[in-house]
């Protein structure tokens, strides 16, 4: 399994432009990029679906488990893992710190979005 570099994590932590594209049903074609908020906690990148588990990109991410993201001028092949448990408290704190002035913060740390938390990991690709 691949990991994020310190430089990548810093860029992602500072960026407000993450676009997520899970694979479509064929497992080859990328879905339409969806702009979402992202946070970095420790050595990992996390995102949440504003509309919760009903969100299309969230459902595709769980089903396909892979795709790509574009953020801070980088395009990365990635995998997606659902997240649950105590790490969500740290993710909430990261959302509060990064997006404290946004009127959308409360829903992003609410139970609906929190239930749709995804960890994004870089994926090794073969050429």
TrEMBL record:
InterPro entries: UCP028498
Any Pfam family matching the protein: DUF2255
Organism domain of life: Bacteria
Protein name in UniProt: DUF2255 domain-containing protein
